[in-house]
Design a protein that fits this description.
The chain has a single domain, classed as TerB-like, CATH 1.10.3680.10. It is 66% helix and 0% strand. Helix 5 packs parallel to helix 7. The model has no long low-confidence stretch (mean pLDDT 89).
Length: 137
Amino acid sequence: MGLFDRLAGKPAELTPKSALVLSAITIIAADGVIEESEINDLAKIVRGDRKSIDVAMQVLKANQFPGVIDLVAQKLDEKQKIATLAILCDLAMADGVLAGEEKTVLQMYMDKFKISEETMKPIIEAIAIKNDFSVFN
């Protein structure tokens, strides 16, 4: 133990909720720009749970991306992983465009979570329909 280790505090411990928040932050930041609408979407996810945001940010600061994907995967059960992927897809498609970086990060989560394309296909189709406002023009 180093001289200053006691000042650092204990490392943040992810919960399933803070793991969801962490994954949402990584997808929101994937394109390099965090827009106000994305912050609003994140607020909907956390529903006032500031502690989950704080824990997610501490874990993100202490661990490099894409290593945080492993940490997220370790905290979620299969049902939570599918729900998380659905939320991440919805976040990534909220502006109607799936940027290359967002697609890459989504694929990384899908691979790490070991969720099949067959499982994700109907979810992605529903999200694509939900976010296609061109049908109203």
